[in-house]
Amino acid sequence: MTLWTDRVRPEITGALTGEVSLADDAVDARDVITVEAPFTGEEIGTVPAATEADVTAAAERARAAQAEWASRPLEQRADVLSRFHDLVLDRREELLDLVVIESGKVRRDAFEEILDVATNARYYGSRADEFLTTRRRHGAIPLLTRTEEHRHPRGVVGMISPWNYPLTLAVSDALPALVAGNAVVLKPAEETPFTALHVAQLLEAAGLPEDVFSVVTGRGSEVGPALIDRVDYVAFTGSTETGREVARRAGENLVDCSLELGGKNPMVVLADADLDRAVQGAVHGAFTNAGQLCISFERLYVEEPLHDRFLRRFAERTRELGLEAALDYGVEVGSLASSDQLEKVEAHLADAVEKGATVVTGGEARPDVGPYFFEPTVLTDVTPEMDLAREETFGPIVAVHRVADAEEAVERANDSAYGLNASVWTDDAERGRELAAGIDCGTVGVNDPYPAAWASVDAPMGGMGDSGLGRRHGREGILKYTQSQTVAEQRGPPIAPPDVPGVPRDVATRLYARTTTGLLRALKRLAEVR
Ligand code: NAD
Questions:
Q1: Which residues have CB under 6 Å of ligand 1?
Q2: Distance from Cα 198 to the centre of ligand 1, integer Å
Q3: What is the DSSP annotation of 392-451?
Q4: CA of 166 to the centre of ligand 1 (A)
Q5: What are 252-269's pLDDT values in tens digits?
Q6: Does residue 441 have an active-site annotation?
Q7: Are 477 and 313 in contact, with CB atoms under 8 Å apart?
Q8: Are 248 and 257 in contact, with CB atoms under 8 Å apart?
Q9: Of 3-17, 284-298, 306-320, 384-398, minimum mean pLDDT range
Q10: pTM value?
């Protein structure tokens, strides 16, 4: 089923005891990638670093498997999603162990991944027919033209994912691709391959045929381009910098792609907001997964009358957050994912402090808890020349800004190259929704940090500006994995000047032009009446 199943056998049950190891024969002399547990820095195991030849083999096997999969009735494909949904819930705890160990996030944050995967499996499993069934369309000439829109799978989808949500980003976007009749070859992040490998096993257990979903582990710079060159569509999630490279390569190949990229997400708190709820929302929105969430907040704009009280309560609540390297549900904040992440967070903070930012709370690495732990940090006095004012930190650092009014808040929220997620907090929900519509982000929560928009899978989700191209979820989230085909049958006279025996061609054509002009006028009147 996966290219590497025979080589790499993570002892998944070992995850239950906090250990994930490889069988002795797992890796031969080939180049390998070592995966570590961020909680402790210990090695979890190794996976092969695939070569271009490995990617070719995976893509060929996927292509061979795809045709049969696509020929199955949609109902059968949807049944696989339904069984996968149940399996993910049944095997929840073991999946959570694996995600926690591999990513260093805490269990309560990892649970959001279970929620996401189950929601997408249910949604696309039960609604795919609505999006994929062949539809009648208005024909060119009423009654005379019968037109249908078909939706065909693209073929093989290449999926490239980051490490921060190893379960969600391995499979939630793959589910609509699969139910639409595609095969998927996934390249997970180097840091989190084991969750992806386990997902492949669960999909197989849910009835997905061999090679319809496969995992190629390896380095991004090698496996990524090789994969893009061998697939019919690319679904990329990761940084904006890599996203640009992916888009360039996909463009060269004339292959379409979706890009879910970074963010510098703002939260706007108006003076009439419920203080407790807003503080709770800020903590959730800024420190989930230690801030390593593409839609988490790094900029807070608080209206003047509430600013001081908000800052005090937010700092207090942030200070109370417990950091711990443990598998239990009770832990509030986990580790950063790697030494690279820690370095970036420390560099952003040092730059900000040097340029005059004030650390209200936090600001320290916590090697006493684990090698990459960093305290949730609240800053004020952040100014535009600081790196963290504009660049994505992707860590537990949030800047609080005082603004005069809602208009200034929205203006400053929009002063960013990114446009992924935002939120507005106010007692006046209608005003909140109005302001939200004026923020240039793909999702905006009103009195909610991100889960409401993110879990509303019937609605599209994605980024504006440097935050990406294309959308996941809803109709757009599945139709991107299809190619439309229009089949039009002309039943009456052709839509062309007629050849009438004995009538000169110019006369027939003039008559045709006159009749067709009348028809176009009638069609416009009909459209206006409708
Ligand atoms: P990254 O761009 O470094 O890596 C993402 C993936 O791309 C990895 O699998 C990597 O191996 C691969 N890759 C690296 N070089 C490549 C290349 N030249 N061609 C093709 N693939 C290549 O990102 P990251 O550091 O793993 O993840 C963090 C970033 O992801 C943040 O910017 C975050 O905001 C973003 N992200 C966005 C979303 C979203 O939905 N918008 C979700 C999660 C994370």
A1: 160-165, 187, 189-190, 220-221, 224-225, 237-239, 242, 245-246, 260-263, 294, 392, 394, 420, 463, 468
A2: 20
A3: ---SSEEEEEEESSHHHHHHHHT-SSEESEEEEE-S-HHHHHHHHHTS-SSEEEESSSSH
A4: 12
A5: 999 999 999 999 999 999
A6: no
A7: no
A8: no
A9: 3-17
A10: 0.93
